[in-house]
Amino acid sequence: MALELDPTLLGILACPACHSNLSVDYEAKELICASQSCALAYPIRENIPIMLVDEARDTRPSRGFN
Hints:
five-stranded antiparallel sheet; 1 helix; single chain; mainly beta
């Protein structure tokens, strides 16, 4: 199923965590927060963005010490 999102919708959506702009990752079917400090990825299921922080994935690299 091809990802189809209304450009008008994309123009008004913002990251619920930090209110930054979002970009679309069509391959991963996610909306990615543009803020490097937030960088959450929100899933898109059946062409519906799931804009819940609890459902988001953190895209920042791990900052652990190994």
